[in-house]
Amino acid sequence: YCDNLTPKQIEELFKLSDQVQGKSQLHKNASKIKAVNHIGDKQAFFESLVTARRDLEGHQVQFSFEELGLINIDNELHIAPNKLVQISDMDRRAILDASHKLKNSAMTDAAYWKSIEKVLQNNRVKMQYQRREAIAQLKKAFQTDNLETVKIGKENIFKNMKPSELDRLANVMTSSGKNYDPKVLEIANEFAKMRHCKTPGDYSNYVEFASKYLNDLKVHKEANYQKAFDEATINEPVSRNVFAKEYRIQGKRSEHFRNEVFNEFKTNREKSFKALDEVYTNLKSTVLPVNAKAVPKFASESAAIYHVFKHSEFGDKLLTPEQYFDIASNLVNEPVNQQSATLNQQGNISMVVFTNPINGAKGVVYEKLADGTQSLATLFFDYKV
Which of 27, 195, 310, 318 registers the highest number of CB atoms within 10 A of its CB? Predict the structure, then answer.
């Protein structure tokens, strides 16, 4: 794998290799050999290691045996070398300094770690401490000591969950899950059970779908309130506070209507869940046939349904599934629309971003480096494009 390296680079590679191998006994190096065998592009792997050599000095570096094909830096960062060298010099040094701090001290400087998490987020990287925190929050949310025993319906959907699946799930739980809100998750969990959820990826999509549905109900209630207020003030001025009291608003208006939605799911459980499932089922019947013919298409049914549900409002238009996928196809199949390509943390998938300033479309495609297989990640309207 050293054909394209200079003698100096080969020398540096062997120095680095000394840190990741065991004693000169084959049976004690079997795990290292297994780790190497899971590297897709071995040439790129070793070349990237050499490129990052200087930044890695002073850090404990070994192969990652939790995520094969990656390197483990200070037992805090599991990352592909080709991803590591893609990160800007300044951000890479900041991330590596953080891994060193975690190895040698506690996380006492809140401002520092907040800035580091912003750097990690911008580069789509998760450190092990973030994953430990995510697991702790998930255990608390599901009231368990072992996530692998959690069942949604009959399925242990979190059993043998990949780190990348955990990362996405944690992001969904903090965003769509409203920071692990028990009221949201109670409804989302029941919905996932109704849909016979089997994977962490599908579960994340169901949480997102249910959360948007709940928010849409709240927005509809707020719109009805505003309409009633406007009608009440046509002939004479009415204090908004007085009207809110007559409307029986308790506390902040947005929170009031949000609680109304949750209460309806409690008091009219069967009817409420049936309505939620009908929205999903109707979308399924129209979205999946179009997704099946799309190039590229969404990797899963639940992803296709959720993204059309969320993003069919395109500027001032409401798109049909056919229109949605037409815009997506025209956008991502035109090379001139490509804006950037960023590797994932595992270094095996490129996230390619496309934009079209003419219609405001922004889309993301995932491309596997091994075989070039593509899947649509999302398409939405962005007024900033």
Answer: 195
